[in-house]
Input
Amino acid sequence: MANSDPVYLRVVEDLRRQIVDGTLPPGAPIPSRHQITRKYSVGETAARHALRVLAQEGLIVGRVGSGHRVREKPILTPSYRSRVPEPHNPFAMDMQASGRQPTWSWRSELAEAPPEIAQRLQLSQWSPVIRVRFVCRGDGRPMQLATSYELVEFGQSQAPEEGTGERRSTVARMAANGTAITEISESVHIRVPQPSESDTLELPTGVQVLHVERTYWAGERPVETSDIVFPGDRFRLVYGIPVHP
Amino acid sequence: MANSDPVYLRVVEDLRRQIVDGTLPPGAPIPSRHQITRKYSVGETAARHALRVLAQEGLIVGRVGSGHRVREKPILTPSYRSRVPEPHNPFAMDMQASGRQPTWSWRSELAEAPPEIAQRLQLSQWSPVIRVRFVCRGDGRPMQLATSYELVEFGQSQAPEEGTGERRSTVARMAANGTAITEISESVHIRVPQPSESDTLELPTGVQVLHVERTYWAGERPVETSDIVFPGDRFRLVYGIPVHP
DNA sequence: CAGGCAAAGTTGGAGCCACAGGCGATGGTC
DNA sequence: GACCATCGCCTGTGGCTCCAACTTTGCCTG
Output
């Protein structure tokens, strides 16, 4: 049956089987192109294509000069929670749960809301907003990117700032302002990362990202919206939704 | 600046720009490999690689014999809602909202819970459960796949059944049984589709899927769990989460 | 003995060519 | 005018080769 199939698929299927059943454990080296051509009696094109497919599936990672290896920790899954006891930070909880040191760096500045963001915040285009860009790291490696836009009236400071370390959660900051967040809505989808994103997240080519658009509501009014981007094969989003409470 | 960049990226970026800004509208033909080699003065390998990248991003689709075209409806995004007024079916709502005719086909049978499912239902391995497999279609094209596992005690029928058409929601069915669903929990992540999945969902190679693991709880007890798989670039998951109600 | 350097191996990019098989348009035949 | 066969174009697969950039290893020199 695997007779008229493309040759490279034979290689892909064999290596994939070895990876998923543990014959090739995380970190194990994958045969090089030359070794594959000999072992499977295929040409170099097929060998290269097979490696590309596996890399694209996120099962292996290739580094120039040092070969391909089975991806480390093929998905330890810290979870990303939307419902989390405030004022705890879900990212910090996930990192600590998986034994990693969470760090943050961020930069806030006054900006003009691009059309899509203005729509999400029910503002007119190019209204002033406070934009904060985050990079969340675990053991120093970037794991999540976030850009958040906040109504200026609630912003403590309109001057550019930057820093490292945890930032108080939106709910807590708003509460300190006398504004109660009543609902958080999120929209989740898959997309291809921008080159800059796959760069900073150190994603192998072909791995797509989860993009979460989150909006914080105070009654009928959206007061902050953020875009959160992270590799969705390493993370899980976890939701718990009560049924008619 | 785009000087030391790989040649194929020049082609990718130019074509991508033309697609996103509408110069190449949905359905428009993409230059063939030979045309690309001439137009951009690149080799055939680069042209092929560029087309592969764009196909992998889901922007174009290639068919043997007839060339590449800009993907139709570059993603109208019906949304997938977790919180939905019962007894409405979120899939039906999405399809009707986007002017498509929703249809279903399903098949239920008695099965033994594989380890992971048993764990999710807090059963011992290979306990009997009722497994239902769904294919949800819009205008006849498969758009979502789901497999659900239900405790036998709540199953109306243990004999294999199959049918087409809508099925009552879990919450409604359980309510009819005298069991109130109190919470739905979901875990969401990205993964590479199984060959069978990308086949039935008609996904271009390289497009990954959203995998939702959903569990229905009656108090402390899980009573049903399902795996829902769908292309996360065409669909969105939408959540609305009240903050300390 | 240590440090540095060179060689070997590896990936990723790129070019060229060939062939099988699907698709479509063109032209010729009935 | 309708229908069909043929031919050319296009993709997907696959083979071979070369090169630049990078890593690792181990040897050699100081």
Notes: The radius of gyration of chain A is 22 Å. DSSP finds seven helices and eleven strands in chain A. Residues 32-34, 48, 51-52, 62-68 of chain A lie near DNA strand C (CB under 10 Å from a C1'). The longest helix of chain A spans residues 7-20.
